[in-house]
Write a structure and sequence with these properties.
Layout (H helix, E strand, L loop, with lengths): L1 E6 L3 H13 L1 H9 L14 H4 L1 H17 L2 E5 L6 H10 L6 E5 L5 H11 L4 E6 L6 H25 L1 E5 L4 H9 L2 E4 L13 H9 L4 H17 L6 H14 L4 E6 L5 H15 L7 E6 L8 H6 L4 E8 L25 H16 L5 E6 L4 H22 L7 H13 L3
Parallel strand pairs: 2-3, 2-4, 4-5, 5-6, 7-8, 7-9, 9-10
Antiparallel strand pairs: 1-10
Bound molecules: 5-phosphoarabinonic acid.
5-phosphoarabinonic acid binds next to loops.
Length: 418
């Protein structure tokens, strides 16, 4: 379950958000129905389309074989091709899973050499994920890793250990046919940042021991919820309207904050989703992350006292998943007020204190999750994707393209003589 709590909302703000909600009601209805103008980008709207039983079964079988044979699994991908998997894996990976190593997200020779060093002496499988297989980072990493695999295992065995996720008809698929790699479909009708519930996100998660059935169930339950809830109660629509209200009021930055480091890579997924979807036509709220409590001691100052440019969205988990008690001692370190307390409780106190302080200065809301598990990650993925879609539509931008990203690629390819 996911709940929205709005902190210190004034009556005027309540009215203002109601106005935005009633003015844009058509957008919610169109999104629920699925718009023909975006038909080539909405394969994620119905979770069943790319995460149905048959697909899940196949992914579980492939993942089982990898888990049985691999010490290391290299996820080659960038942006939408790795962020969703990485956010869940780094939060929930199982101790008995192969080490998950990331490649295809940098061109730094130092980082690439470090990555190759980590493979030495290990039984390795690789998974290259690239929608059209033109992006330089995954393409160049895949080449280096294919060479590494062939030199370690020979042609035949390395082919068995190589998986690629690409679109049907792409040069990546042709490469798979020619060299005998396992090929999985990258949905043509889903843009990279919306692919959490497809082969793109689900295979690496399954390899890491994540219960992908629970994840998909969470997404599906959220899908049903946001398609059934009326505008007044619709959690995704409320969030989209609030973002647009704050934007109109001059708040140009949204900080997603939490006191749980398990969200560290989820922030990256969320930042990409919002920034790439909404930041265009000289519009958009700039998304940033607040990794608390560490960053309370750095950007916390700006949030509290600096330019009033941001609103804050907290993630808070209700169910305790760990415990560490501060045992009383005789050492007189002036921290005796913590004696007998659990760090879970101490961390919560820091969260409540921060909400109290920040909400006196800027608009703040919290998404409360019952538990931090695969099911709730599924809920979060679907929720933010749907809310992002609504928010972009209210702002008047295309949620599914990324013309700005293409611009730098053009200059880079030119410089490299492509
Ligand atoms: O959301 C998107 O479409 C992008 O961020 C892509 O995921 C990213 O650029 C990687 O593209 P590709 O999978 O084609 O390498």
């Amino acid at each position: 379950m996911l709940n929205l709590i709005i902190h210190n909302q004034s009556e005027d703000q309540k009215k203002a958000v109601d106005v935005i909600a009633s003015e844009n009601i058509r957008i919610l209805e169109e999104a629920k129905a699925g718009e023909t103008c975006y038909a080539d980008s909405q394969g994620w709207l119905d979770t069943e389309e790319w995460a149905g039983e048959e697909n899940i079964k196949r992914l579980e079988e492939i993942a089982k074989e990898i888990r049985e044979n691999a010490d290391a699994f290299v996820l080659i991908g960038v942006g939408g091709s790795n962020n969703a998997a990485r956010s869940v894996i780094e939060a929930l990976k199982k101790d008995d899973a192969p080490e998950i190593i990331y490649a295809g997200n940098t061109l730094s020779p130092y980082a690439l050499n470090q990555m190759l060093k980590r493979l030495k002496g290990k039984s390795v499988y690789i998974d290259c994920i690239a929608k059209n297989f033109e992006t330089l980072e995954p393409g160049s990493s895949f080449r280096i890793l294919r060479e590494y695999m062939e030199s370690e295992y020979g042609k035949e065995e390395s082919a068995k250990r190589t998986i690629a996720v690409g679109t049907t008809g792409s040069s990546l698929e042709k490469l798979c046919e020619k060299y005998g790699y396992t090929f999985l479909e990258f949905p043509l009708n889903v843009g990279g940042r919306y692919t959490a519930m497809t082969n793109v996100g689900l295979l690496p998660m399954a390899v890491a021991g994540i219960d992908i059935r629970e994840l998909v169930k969470g997404a599906r339950d959220m899908q049903i919820r946001v398609h059934e809830e009326s505008a007044e109660k619709n959690i995704a629509y409320q969030y989209a309207c609030l973002r647009n209200l704050y934007y109109k009021e001059g708040y140009r930055v949204e900080m997603l904050s939490s006191f749980e480091p398990q969200f560290r890579f989820f922030y990256k997924w969320w930042i990409q989703l919002l920034a790439e979807s909404e930041g265009k036509d000289n519009k958009g709220v700039f998304p940033v992350a607040g990794e608390f409590s560490e960053e309370l001691h750095s950007v916390g100052q700006f949030i509290q006292d600096g330019s009033p440019i941001m609103f804050e969205t907290f993630l808070d988990v209700k169910k305790q998943n760990a415990s560490l008690i501060v045992e009383p001692d005789e050492k007189e370190d002036y921290f005796d007020y913590l004696d007998g307390k659990d760090f879970w409780e101490i961390n919560k106190a820091a969260y409540h204190a921060t909400v109290t302080a920040h909400s006196k200065k800027l608009p703040c809301m919290t998404f409360e999750l019952d538990e931090l598990d695969a099911y709730h990650f599924g809920q979060l993925f679907y929720f933010f994707q749907f809310a992002c879609y609504l928010s972009c539509k209210i702002m008047g931008v295309n949620p599914f393209d990324q013309p700005g990203v293409e611009a730098y690629k053009k200059w880079m390819f030119e410089a490299l003589g492509k």
